[in-house]
């Protein structure tokens, strides 16, 4: 069964910056989509910030197995209701792949519970990504390392939670390192952060980057949504699995009324 | 040097429910504080929801090494600005211990990036907490397991991220299990979630619970705040550690203007 | 492409104990294999302790994608050379699923670097396995919990390393809990420990257990062996990726001669 | 109470190689000890491979809270009985800090359950260690990064298990990266691996390296030994915490006789 994949592009610098427009004449989202389509099992759509509800309507997300997110200049233009909706779909099992400057998106910071800060430099320097976890599905088919001759530098400390696993670590020409490929799960949803992707450089024309993205979509996909994870239900005493007697004092119904569990 | 500890109590059911008031005539926060004061190295203050800024002013937090948080009925009464302030202090290094129904507090859900749901039953049943990580500092001095004869049940799945380490797992009389002691780090701040503590039962009069809380404060304390973690600074090319030449295209200053990095 | 799966059975108590023989007239390994064969994509073979090299010849392992290991009474009868061979295949990418009393096998203890102790009781008591990680591939298609009416109890602390992820936690009738489904990676090889499976009870006739095992084989499979992970090669200065000059003092060739790196 | 710290040095190249002898006229172990003694709370002893039982007698280890291990040329000269003894003390709570080429020691490989391979180059190149986990106790008091002008290169993949936490990541002049500071727990014992320390360079004269080692000893220390973790005891049915009736078939005493649980 095909994996329904949605690429979300901010699509701002493509419209304003000549170099970015030349790199990605159809927009970054469409170039990312073309990398993904090299895997015949991925059914790939794209959408952008400029669409109604940024293209992330309830219906669109309900029909998405894995969402990719690239944003940079307009994080604060993303509506909070859409951010909440994306997070809720992740918690129920939608996969999410966050790209490059998406580390500062509301969606990623919200799911990490962290500021996701770092230090950075835009100088077209060489980045070399080392596979530190060669058995991980996201590293499948890659060489021991690969290089991006022109990239923006991101330096540690990257203030994100300790990941489930670290897949890539980057070396930068100017002397920094960065944990470039990190996996997480939030609720039932798999999340992968992948560092490269500065818009003024041709990163999404790189074959190894394409391989990583295809691997990541396959890894992140995990099947049906689990809506029950969004609830905190009461289990009545009479339905306890092992028979128990109710004992001790209870909160009154009125006291429970103030609680947020539902 | 003493560890400056602040106990935050919601202080709602103590004022409305006769049983809770009898259990905790001085409020739950003060009883928790009295458990902590058995460690002479802890300098313990308390505050409540009802105080201005819920007692979590910038000054109060700046003078806190470890914050304990108990809330249940009034999570949505906690001001978002205070929630943000608490999270920012955690990211910079303040320790945080979240108790029982605090799993649904805005602070905890925000730091976990997860709904932190579970299922529950208020029947005064027996809970038995097993130490699954006997080398962890939070388990120090505890027996192999300890029991709370009357507790609310919380059942899995608990939708929180995989922890750094699982310290306790609970057995419940009615047939459920729960990961009852979980550690996390967010930014530079240590976080410990500890499950027991339903307000209609005498949990905070239990000696083992006191031992866990004192251990947890000592574990969570990590020294000074690291304000630099709140920033994502640019490193100018001229200041690169290893000498590099600027290459390739750059975003214009105008393009950078829209970014949130600061 | 089918997943080449090998079930290793100790096959001792089936030959000596009437109840075990009645439970598993073809041996436990063959019953486990029949559960796996319900997944048409698994190509399943079996072997036992009694075969030459315990059926784990270099050729047999080289043709195995995922190995399942059930042992109990005869851990010390397993030849150290075979143990080493199995571990080396795991490090290069063979998946491994360790069942029940296999926690004390040389293979598992060797891969964990831990004694893998626990406490236990053989009383035919009820075990209830809760899914604590509902988004994990190994939990796919399972209910919120499932029960085994007759099982041996294993109690915490289970002295194994903190896992990558905890998938199941068990409740026992006699009052204990146990982390029953744990994932690890060693080198490029995925490892899953699954607790149930005492030989005097009909555990491997249970449908949910079958589902877990099939899920686990699919999860553990990761493709080709990575032989290069068994080496620690020197990278000559002249072949450094970034041009460097050799500086400082070096060990002589004679000094290097004593090292084990190769 | 002082932390009883034992520095184990292989003490081979100091005796054979002129440069090493000049770097460390009293042996590497004594120079490491002198760094540790800058913390008045550490009570530091040293021993070497050449001592009876390599200085790791039962009595010596029983009186050690944290052991540091530096070896390189003579890993295979370390007696297997001593290796087993060290591992058993770690499992019961002794802290262990493994230095540089100790990655290939029997003790470390045994505790990791992994080959702990890497690739390497001895060219006196620059290493820069970045703190990626600024809230970790082992990073306390360190700058954002520190440099060692002359070091041996170790490159990824480092075939060790995913750590509890990654504290340092190294940048190398020749283009490689390495996860240089990794934490683990095995049984009740804390383990820290720290990469730098090649014997032909003056690494153990560096102030930041000294700070890391002192921090690591303080972090790894966790108090008393837990001998019970070395056993897998039977819990008789009559002593079950919750009253249960024995049911179903059991293994005979004779069948149990073959098991290794004790």
Features:
262 residues; ThuA-like (chains A, B, C, D); alpha/beta; Class_I_gatase-like (chains A, B, C, D); nine-stranded mixed sheet; Rossmann fold
List the total number of helices of chain A: 8
**Which word captures the global form of chain A?**
elongated
* Strand-pairing-aware structural class of chain A: alpha/beta
Helix content of chain A: 10-25%
Helices and strands of chain A, in N-to-C order? EHHHEHEHEHEEEEEHH
Count of DSSP E strands of chain A?
9
Q: What is the gyration radius of chain A calculated from CA atoms?
A: 21 Å
Give the rounded overall mean pLDDT of chain A: 96
Percent in strands of chain A: 25-35%
**In the CATH scheme, what's the topology name of chain A?**
Rossmann fold
Could you describe the 3D structure shown?
Chains A, B, C, D: Pfam families: ThuA. The structure is a homotetramer of 262-residue chains. Chain A is of the alpha/beta class and 262 residues long. Chain A has one domain: Class I glutamine amidotransferase (GATase) domain (Rossmann fold, 3-Layer(aba) Sandwich). Chain A is 24% helix and 27% strand. Chain A has eight helices and nine strands. In chain A, strand 8 and strand 9 form a beta hairpin. In chain A, helix 5 packs across helix 6. The mean pLDDT of chain A is 96.
Give a short synopsis of this structure.
Chains A, B, C, D: Pfam families: ThuA. With 262 residues, chain A is α/β, with parallel strands linked by helices.
């Amino acid at each position: 069964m095909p994996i329904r994949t949605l690429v979300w592009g901010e699509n701002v610098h493509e419209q304003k910056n000549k170099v970015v427009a030349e790199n990605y004449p159809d927009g970054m989202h469409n170039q990312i989509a073309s990398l993904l389509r090299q895997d015949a099992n991925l059914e790939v759509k794209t959408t952008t910030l400029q669409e109604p509800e940024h293209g992330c309507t309830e219906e669109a997300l309900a029909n998405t197995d894995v969402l990719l997110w690239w944003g940079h200049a307009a994080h604060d233009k993303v509506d909070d209701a859409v951010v909440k909706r994306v997070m809720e779909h992740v918690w129920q099992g939608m996969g999410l792949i966050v790209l490059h400057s998406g580390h500062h998106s509301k969606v990623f910071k919200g799911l990490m519970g962290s500021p996701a800060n770092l230090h950075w430099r835009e100088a077209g320097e060489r980045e070399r990504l080392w596979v530190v976890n060669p058995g991980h599905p996201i590293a499948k088919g890659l060489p021991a390392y690969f290089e991006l001759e022109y990239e923006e530098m991101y330096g540690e400390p990257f203030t994100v939670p300790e990941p489930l696993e670290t897949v890539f670590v980057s070396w930068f020409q100017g002397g920094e390192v960065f944990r470039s490929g990190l996996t997480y799960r939030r609720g039932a949803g798999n999340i992968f952060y992948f560092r490269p992707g500065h818009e003024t450089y041709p990163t999404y024309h790189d074959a190894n980057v394409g391989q990583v993205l295809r691997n990541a979509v396959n890894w992140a996909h995990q099947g049906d949504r689990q809506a029950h994870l969004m609830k905190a239900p009461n289990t009545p005493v009479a339905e306890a699995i092992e028979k128990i007697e109710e004992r001790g004092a209870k909160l009154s119904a009125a006291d429970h009324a103030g609680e947020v569990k539902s």
